[in-house]
Structure formats: C-alpha cells, structure tokens
Amino acid sequence: MKILIVDDQPLARKIVRTVLGTGMHEVWEAGGAAEAIAMYGQFLPDVVLMDISLGEMDGIEATRRIRASDSHAKIIMITIADDARSRAESFRAGASGFFLKDDLTRLPEVLEELRDR
Q: Which of 70, 96, 97, 99 has a 20 to 30 A CA-CA distance from 79?
C-alpha cells in the first residue's frame, strides 16, 4: 500500500511510520500542506494520513484540494484536535477517517479495511 504521511512535526511522522510497521507499505512524508498536495499528484498514494495543524495551510484545506483533484482520494485525519468542529470540518472536506495521535492502535486495521475497498 502506498501511503503519504503529512505532518509538520518530524517526530510525529516518525511515530506514524512506527505504527505502520515495516515492509508492508511504500511510504512518503510531507512536512506541509502544499508539499502534500504536490506529492499526492506525483505519487498517487492509496491513503493520505493528514494532520490538521500544518501552518501555512491546514490539513482540512489540503484535504479539500486533494479531493477536488481526485474524488476517490482516501484521506485519514490524524490530529490532537479532539473536538466536534474539527471532526465535522474534516468529514465535510472529504476525509475518510479521523484518528487522535494519542491512540493510533487501530490505524493498521483501518488501513487494511481501506485496502479491501
């Protein structure tokens, strides 16, 4: 499975990589929204793991833009922002899922489910 991890914090990207495990995935990393949009077009990943807080452009707007270019894009939000507004905006933007960074234990299982769709 091809995966793009989008987070402005290198340590957060490393943690997500660790949760994903080794050998089963082809993984790219982007440190910001604009980079993620460009990389999506270049690599066409199966899944994007997108942080919400990214600085110059947030992950929700990046999700909107990616989904505008590919209505079948699968984007899972991974964030510390556990509030109803962030969840609702993420899903309105086209997110396929929403995970909190402090509990990524189900992430590999969800990725397998997405692979089967």
A: 70
Domain enclosing residue 56, as ranges? 2-116
Identify whether the C-beta of residue 78 lies closer than 8 Å to the C-beta of residue 49: yes
Residue 57: CB atoms within 10 A of its CB come to 15
CATH code at position 26: 3.40.50.2300
CB 95 within 8 A of CB 62: no
Q: How many domains does the chain have?
A: 1
Residue 29 and residue 8: Cα distance in Å, rounded?
A: 10
pTM: 0.93
Strand order through the sheet with 26-30: 26-30, 2-6, 47-50, 75-79, 97-100
